[in-house]
Specification:
The mean pLDDT is about 90. Helix 2 packs across helix 4. It contains 4 helices and no strands. About 0% of the residues are buried. The protein is an all-alpha fold and about 70 residues long.
Length: about 70
């Protein structure tokens, strides 16, 4: 496996990329809202939005943790 990630991880890379792009776009508005429109984050995002973001981030984190554990076990 030296120099290569396992198939189970590489098959998820596009999804991980999409999660990263989505969360990075929402980071500023989640913290500050839309300042120019005087709309707070609580008017933009719902609890469901937060739960979905957390679940996506946890999925990526868990996959990365699994990959790191596999690499260090070898």
């Amino acid at each position: 496996m030296k120099g290569k990630v396992p198939d189970w991880f590489s098959s998820e890379l596009q999804k991980f990329r999409d999660v990263s792009v989505d969360l990075s776009k929402k980071r500023g508005p989640a913290l500050y809202g839309y300042e120019a429109e005087l709309r707070p984050a609580s008017d933009i995002f719902s609890r469901t939005d937060a739960e979905e973001a957390l679940a996506s981030a946890e999925e990526v984190f868990n996959a990365c943790s699994k990959l790191i554990n596999e690499v260090f076990e070898q």
